[in-house]
């Protein structure tokens, strides 16, 4: 069987959408995502630790300074303190904390809160007040008027006597504006550092993607070469990673494929040569046998009935064998690529009509043959095509059998259609894809047939030589139809 020539694919520059969906783009994006995630995680952790450290430092400093001021000024109070003494006490604390910008409030037991000079309107969270009354220093971050503050609560104890609580409570509101500025600067610094890091990650991402994709590109190139028939293609294996294992596996596959294809080609060539040799060797004895049985067949009428039946049977079977040998030789020529076209401009209707007349089918076949349809064809091969299809319809279909020739436009040219239809039961849908295969029998139980099983295969090969196609189908009204579709070439057209 002839092998169609392999065409090398035409490579085009990949479209932008294709590149975006490619493995390189996905690797680069994945690398950048990992780099961005790492940078953001590092920045977040750094920000959290730095922010905690800044706030803790501010908190510890404010608590220490407030405690120191309270310890220095509280001994001047008398207990229970008078309201005027508490006012002076809070004002002194306010003046002492001007550097920290804190505002102070004081309270003695359940008496009203005594605010400092700037503490009007400041409230102390219940949680802080509860802990201070229990004798525990406390602090809490709050937002007031959209600004962050640190609220500190200190219980004042008597010196000596085991640190007994005096009942005096001191509360301070410390602004955290500078800390927030420092934290915002830290966030901006992290952002400015993360963006260049992500941008710089593009370079190692491209390098890494190139290193990963190089073996993939080599594998694609080698696969394409295998597809083009270069079975000796092998990949260069470097390294011991998964891609190297894939390259080794590909080389093993290519070697096994090359060996198997070589063996199949050798067996195919041997079987073709065997069929051709057997067919050629059978021609000479068959010619002698045919000549003898022809003589015996002429005298069969003078023989007794049993002998006459035997002679006619031998003549019939010898004719079948001769046709089978001719079909085998014909298919062998196709397999060897030795079949050639001898084109001539012919009248298509006249050519089909001669085929029917030569086999005595003109009264069995209805012909629709328009005149003046001329085409460049090989008359001998078209005769074989029409004869095989009409003979197949007469043997396996149902009469009436019809042959029609039509011309239809196709693009800038025309196509020649030859249709052979019958009115039989049609072809089993499961059989349709196989009707042009060699030696195919629709009924596996039928070991004998009128033909060689090669007629439709030879028909298809002859049509292919004309750059045409042949197809089989079932008609809606019953019966099968075979359609030969050929390019219509007229005088002066090149093949």
UniProtKB/TrEMBL annotation:
Database matches in InterPro entries: BphY/WalK/GraS-like (IPR050351), HAMP_dom (IPR003660), HATPase_C_sf (IPR036890), HATPase_dom (IPR003594), His_kinase_dom (IPR005467), HisK_dim/P_dom (IPR003661), HisK_dim/P_sf (IPR036097), Sig_transdc_His_kin-like_C (IPR004358)
EC class name: transferase
One GO biological process term: osmosensory signaling via phosphorelay pathway
One GO MF term: phosphorelay sensor kinase activity
PANTHER family documented for this protein: SENSOR HISTIDINE KINASE GLRK, TWO-COMPONENT HISTIDINE KINASE
Pfam families, per database record: HAMP, HATPase_c, HisKA
Gene3D superfamilies assigned to the protein according to its UniProt record, in alphabetical order: 1.10.287.130, 6.10.340.10, Histidine kinase-like ATPase, C-terminal domain
Segments forming domain HAMP: 210-262
Ranges for domain Histidine kinase: 277-490
EC code: 2.7.13.3
Keyword Hydrolase set for record: no
Source species taxonomy: Bacteria, Bacillati, Actinomycetota, Actinomycetes, Kitasatosporales
Localization, UniProt: Cell membrane
Catalysed conversion reaction: ATP + protein L-histidine = ADP + protein N-phospho-L-histidine
Keywords tagged on the record: ATP-binding, Kinase, Membrane, Nucleotide-binding, Phosphoprotein, Transferase, Transmembrane, Transmembrane helix, Two-component regulatory system
Domain of life from the UniProt record: Bacteria
GO CC annotation: plasma membrane
UniProt cross-references to PROSITE patterns, sorted A to Z: HAMP, HIS_KIN
Kinase is among the record's keywords: yes
Protein name, UniProt field: Sensor-like histidine kinase SenX3
Species name: Streptomyces triculaminicus
